[in-house]
Amino acid sequence: MTLLSLSHVTKIYRQGGMLGRRLITAVKDVSFEIGDEPEILSIVGESGSGKSTVAAMILGQAEPTEGELQFAGKTVAIHNRAERTAFMKEVQPVLQNPFEAFNPLKRVDRYLFETASNFSTSGKRPNRREVEKMADTALHHVGLTLEEVKGRFPHELSGGQLQRVAIARALIPEPRLLVADEPVSMVDASLRMAIVNLFGRLKNELGLSIIYITHDLATAYYVSDNIIIMRKGEIVERGRARAVLDDPQHAYSRALKDAVLAAEFGEVG
Ligand SMILES: Nc1ncnc2c1ncn2[C@@H]1O[C@H](COP(=O)(O)OP(=O)(O)OP(=O)(O)O)[C@@H](O)[C@H]1O
C-alpha cells in the first residue's frame, strides 16, 4: 500500500489575516508518493520554494487549499486531540533547531519521557520503568544511551548530541514516517554527514521512510533514494537522487547544483 500520497496539492495563504487581500501560492499542484518500501525522499529548493509548507501539510499542521493528502490510504484530516495523537503515532516531525526546540531550563530526558507517556505503544499509560525503557531504546537507535543524557540540560550536550536526542524523541512512537525539515541547518558541516548517515541507518534498521527537507544538495545526494526539486511552490524536477543530481535537466536544478559546486571549489559566480 502507498504510505503517503499527495495529489494535486495546492496551498494558498492569505496575507494580512482573514480580510487580507494578498494571496500567496506557497505550494502549487504538487503530487508525489512514498510507497511501502522504506525510502528517503529529499525535497530541495531555495528559501521560499514551499518546502516547509509541504512538510506542514504532511504533518497535518496545515490543510491543503486544494488537492488531497493520504496517509496509508486514508485522507489526512485531523479534527481533535485523539485524531492528532493517532496520526502522530505514525508520522513524526524531527525538530529543526534543537537549540530553539528544547527549553534551556528543562532537562532533555523530560522530552523523551513525555513523548513516551503520550505515545505508549501498548495503549496503556506506561509506568516510570517502561517510560525509561522506551527512551533508552530510542536513544540506542541514534547511538546514545539514557545514562548519557539523563538529568542533563540542553547546554550540557553538544549540538550533534542534541540533534540525536531530537531524532530519538521522534522515534519513540515507532512512527512509519519522519519529516525532517532542515534538520542539519544548525549543525556544523562536519556533523551533517553523521546525521544523514543516521537517517540511512534508521531507514534500513527500522524500515522507516524519511522526508528530508534541505537546501543542502551534498547531503541530499548522499543519503536520498529519490529527490524532488521545488521552485516557487512547484516541482520542477524529480527522480532517483543520483540520476537527477548527476545530470539535472531543468535549468533551475542545474543552477542549484552549479551554486553548490562554486561554493565548494571557491569559484566566483
Ligand atoms: N503562514 C503563512 N502565512 C503566509 N504566508 C506564508 C506562510 N507560510 C509560508 N508562507 C509563504 O509561502 C511561501 C513558501 O514558504 P515556505 O516556508 O513553505 O518555503 P521554504 O521553501 O520552506 O522556505 P525556507 O527554506 O526559507 O523555510 C513563502 O512565500 C512564504 O512567505
TrEMBL record:
The keyword Lipid metabolism does not apply. One of its GO terms (molecular function) is ATP hydrolysis activity. Residues 4-257 form the ABC transporter domain. Keywords: ATP-binding, Nucleotide-binding. Pfam families: ABC_tran. It comes from the Bacteria. Belongs to the ABC transporter superfamily. PANTHER family: ABC-TYPE DIPEPTIDE/OLIGOPEPTIDE TRANSPORT SYSTEM, ATPASE COMPONENT, OLIGOPEPTIDE ABC TRANSPORTER, ATP-BINDING PROTEIN. This is Peptide/nickel transport system ATP-binding protein. It comes from Rhizobium aethiopicum. The lineage of its organism: Bacteria, Pseudomonadati, Pseudomonadota, Alphaproteobacteria, Hyphomicrobiales.
